[in-house]
Amino acid sequence: MARFSLLITSSPVDDQGVVTAINFARAALAANHQLCGIFFYGPGTHNANSLQLVPTDEFQPYSAWLELAAQGIPLHVCVTAAARRGILSETEANEQDSVSYNLTPPFQASGLGQFIELMNSADRVVQF
Amino acid sequence: MARFSLLITSSPVDDQGVVTAINFARAALAANHQLCGIFFYGPGTHNANSLQLVPTDEFQPYSAWLELAAQGIPLHVCVTAAARRGILSETEANEQDSVSYNLTPPFQASGLGQFIELMNSADRVVQF
Amino acid sequence: MILHILTESPGTDTFRQCFASISQGDGLLLIQNGVYMNTEHQMFSPVAKIFALAADRQARGLTDLSPEINLIDYAEFVELTLKYDKTVTW
Amino acid sequence: MILHILTESPGTDTFRQCFASISQGDGLLLIQNGVYMNTEHQMFSPVAKIFALAADRQARGLTDLSPEINLIDYAEFVELTLKYDKTVTW
Amino acid sequence: MSLPSLAIISRHAPHGTAHGQEALDLALVSGTFGQAITLFFIGDGVYQLLQHQQTDMIGRKNYSKTFAALDFYDVSQPVVCTESLAQRGISSESLCIEANLQPPENWRALLNNFDQIVTF
Amino acid sequence: MSLPSLAIISRHAPHGTAHGQEALDLALVSGTFGQAITLFFIGDGVYQLLQHQQTDMIGRKNYSKTFAALDFYDVSQPVVCTESLAQRGISSESLCIEANLQPPENWRALLNNFDQIVTF
């Protein structure tokens, strides 16, 4: 039993890493390892966009993240990196007088300090 | 007087092209050239996300596109490329039972055929 | 000992940076576009043990495999990250 | 006659693809990370006339300029696209 | 005046990103609009044409199968840079379609014939 | 148990993308958390350290000025690959800070000393 934290810096559409990350996470859980949490940073924050509409015959990264969250894995999103990419929580949207928002639970708006904590509590950090 | 159409395939945060594209568009208008329209495709569709929140001391690409639109330049977004990247119009959002949406006028949800038309009506197409 | 996870193809600067950063005894795992590497591309093998994610090779239609490269699945990928002290993703 | 607009630095595969696609009489305009090119990097100059966007060089702190490269501003960028028959952005 | 012809240069490996798929989508739509359109492959883009791709395990669409149907969409035979193939150790027999294989000098001469050029 | 040390490898040119800025942001936050943290520059990443950058005209933040303040944030002196500098014709005098210049063999030996490594 080892503890893993994952750092996701790949966007779901324009980078390669997300399918790999999700398969890695599933394999780690299947082998009874623990996932301390997943941190989304940089282009990786696009994963938290709740409005993604992928053709039904293709892999659905957003649903796959939700499935991991349903198993108790925390999904933390760097709020600064997300905001400049147009991914806002309801709180932030309200501050901007926007009725729309696209960062919803189980994704959590967090700061970089959360990544440091996830790193410090893990045996291995793997970046995708 | 020449007629230009621009194809934008660069994302506003993770690629280089957007500042260049906007400066190019402004310079073309300043020289009395005509801009038939701007078409956003691939990662470029991220430009149409109305929820982008860029630090105030930095360049605001979204506002800059709106300024161009205010001068009568059509902003067309490939709806398929946008949807898989989490950029939805109100109509599409309603179909998905989502109250939130982030593709709003003056950005227009269009198809690739619109790019063909913009290309055919221009003397020069420049991609950024 | 580092497990270097290479995601880019041999023509990229990323590939060269990864190559420049590998020490004797490190591991090299090819995933995503990294699987386009074959040992003829570079002389990695004297330095590092080389692995490749089978699913990513299959997706890209790659059939010829040099004998120095060990094919692995996701379960083995997880184990591999524990055999080395840390990982770095290129 | 094509105006090749290069946005990537000399270490990239994009740079090599652009180089492979230039014909005699074409133009080469360096913008964004393309401005890191200096003529010592490649022998573009015998083939194409070379331009660089001054704002992008300034942003990156580049001061040494080889005499074969002509600095231009955005107004000249617009004019340049009209002097050639078409553009391609690399 | 006839419609301007369009060259679409595809230069990224498949599956990692959406570039290749979105270049192909543009080609198919252009073809149905009656535009004279040709796909050009260079650099890692030539990897898109490898046969035997099986993408089920990575959840991406295996769009390499669509290349065989280009003709049906009135898209002409793709032009492939032989130097890019050679650098990657790819023989013409391992491609999934019959392509118009050209060394760089012809590749760029063909490119020059088009009215507009876009890259993906 | 002491906090694990973190190496942040920065390998993209500045301004074109957010990579360099976001690597630096992570370094600064890690420093304030008391983490032993070092920035490593390789490839086009070394361009970030050039002096005389003036980004007003492109609307990006000139974060190269922040490198001089790393010490203030308890971030140690950056390690720079001399091979990457040489390939790009950059002399150490044209850098905006005093860096720890190392050839590849030392660069990777130093990297090996860290508990965790991330890349941008």
TrEMBL record, chains A, B:
SUPFAM superfamilies listed in its UniProt record: DsrEFH-like
Keyword Transferase in record: yes
Listed Gene3D superfamilies: DsrEFH-like
The organism's place on the tree of life at top rank: Bacteria
Compartment list: Cytoplasm
Alphabetized UniProt keyword annotations: Cytoplasm, Transferase
NCBIfam families, per database record: PRK00207.1, sulf_tusD_dsrE
Similarity field: Belongs to the DsrE/TusD family.
Name of the protein: Sulfurtransferase TusD
Species this protein is from: Lacimicrobium alkaliphilum
Automatic annotation (TrEMBL), chains C, D:
Record's signal peptide: none
Domain of life of the organism encoding this protein: Bacteria
Name of the protein described by the UniProt record: Sulfur relay protein DsrH
Provenance organism: Lacimicrobium alkaliphilum
UniProtKB/TrEMBL annotation, chains E, F:
One matching Pfam family: DsrE
InterPro entries in the cross-refs: DsrEFH-like, Sulphur_relay_DsrE/F-like, Sulphur_relay_TusC/DsrF
Gene3D superfamilies attached to this UniProt entry: DsrEFH-like
Listed NCBIfam families: PRK00211.1, sulf_tusC_dsrF
Similarity annotation: Belongs to the DsrF/TusC family.
Name by which UniProt lists this protein: Sulfurtransferase TusC
